[in-house]
């Protein structure tokens, strides 16, 4: 009998638009010979099952079941396609854990940790992974720009500490730009990360686990027409991505090993995407952040890397679902 899979999309943040695009790609590539899948849309108006003809009905939150033509459907696993809250920050993971329902992302603790950029790099540093020097600032404890610049050297990146898709992020080259960048980031979150700029090449790499073995996808080098890889660069055609990246093997090995180490140290599950800067001065990879529900839209990097590895998306999503089912 085919397993029943809930493809969960939407979300409660500005990243919902990306979640819906990801769900289209994933839905088009689920192996329907092995799985029956159902689209679940979680948004500010409620939790909805959306049928193929566009009809909507509510999800029973007591057990995450739906009713289709009078039949109650209970799922065998959840395939998460929510970027941002509540699908990437541990909230849904905790709910599914309470129900005993397997899912394809990191667990609640790891999801909550990695959603917080500062805590992520702090734990990674404890694990021996290179990270940039940074400062964690809270809205309830204001700090002057002078105090920031006493601790960090320009240029710096200012970004909301929680969230993704580079929303609210700025690069600051001059001291006079810093307050505007702080204000912009605080509009998105009540805590922010200020991080020293590292000069070098930017790479991103997918990491996943199959039958207990941590594996990496072919990495991607990211070039942007903007000053940094912001929302417009990511989603509005203002970047160039080369997959697989052209890189000397000695440096490629360093990035792959750092990615596997980060996956292990942070106790990741499912497929994650980890961003690195290859430090121009030292030749060492510095980890930037971890995306535990990486984009799966046609413009996204993980599908590019899967194809570069020689897999079909159907085979890849099958492997991801089957790995979740064994937990």
UniProtKB/TrEMBL annotation:
It comes from the Bacteria. Keywords: ATP-binding, Cell shape, Cell wall biogenesis/degradation, Cytoplasm, Ligase, Nucleotide-binding, Peptidoglycan synthesis. The keyword RNA-binding does not apply. It catalyses: 2 D-alanine + ATP = D-alanyl-D-alanine + ADP + phosphate + H(+). Its cofactor is Mg(2+); Mn(2+). Residues 121-322 form the ATP-grasp domain. It is found in: Cytoplasm. NCBIfam families: D_ala_D_alaTIGR, PRK01372.1, PRK01966.1-3. Belongs to the D-alanine--D-alanine ligase family. Cell wall formation. This is D-alanine--D-alanine ligase. It comes from Parasediminibacterium paludis.
């Amino acid at each position: 009998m085919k397993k029943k899979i809930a493809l969960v999309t939407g979300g409660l943040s500005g990243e919902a638009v990306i979640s819906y695009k990801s769900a289209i790609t994933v839905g088009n590539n689920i192996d329907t010979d092995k799985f029956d899948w159902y689209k679940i849309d979680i948004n500010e108006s409620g939790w909805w099952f959306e049928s193929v003809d566009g009809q909507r009905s509510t999800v029973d939150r007591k057990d995450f079941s739906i009713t289709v033509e009078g039949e109650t459907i209970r799922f065998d696993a959840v395939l998460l396609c929510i970027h941002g809250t509540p699908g990437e920050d541990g909230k849904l993971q905790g709910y599914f854990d309470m129900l005993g329902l397997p899912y394809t992302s990191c667990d609640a603790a790891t999801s909550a940790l990695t959603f917080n950029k500062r805590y992520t790099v702090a734990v990674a540093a404890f694990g021996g992974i290179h990270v940039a020097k940074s400062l964690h600032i809270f809205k309830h404890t204001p700090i002057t720009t002078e105090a920031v610049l006493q601790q960090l050297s320009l240029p710096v990146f200012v970004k909301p500490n929680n969230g993704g898709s580079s929303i609210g992020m700025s690069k600051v080259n001059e001291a006079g730009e810093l307050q505007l960048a702080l204000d912009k980031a605080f509009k998105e979150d009540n805590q922010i990360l200020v991080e020293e700029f590292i000069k070098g090449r930017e790479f991103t790499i997918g990491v996943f686990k199959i039958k207990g073995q941590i594996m990496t996808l072919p990495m991607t080098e990211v070039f942007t027409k903007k000053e940094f890889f912001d929302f417009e660069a990511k989603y509005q055609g203002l970047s160039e991505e080369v997959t697989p990246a052209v890189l000397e093997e000695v440096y490629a090995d360093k990035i792959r090993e750092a990615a596997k180490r980060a996956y292990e140290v942070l106790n990741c599950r499912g497929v994650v995407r980890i961003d690195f800067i290859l430090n121009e001065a030292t030749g060492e990879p510095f980890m930037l952040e971890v995306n535990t529900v990486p984009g799966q839209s046609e413009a996204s990097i993980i599908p590019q890397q899967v194809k570069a590895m020689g897999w079909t998306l159907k085979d890849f999503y099958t492997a991801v679902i089957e790995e979740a089912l064994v937990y």
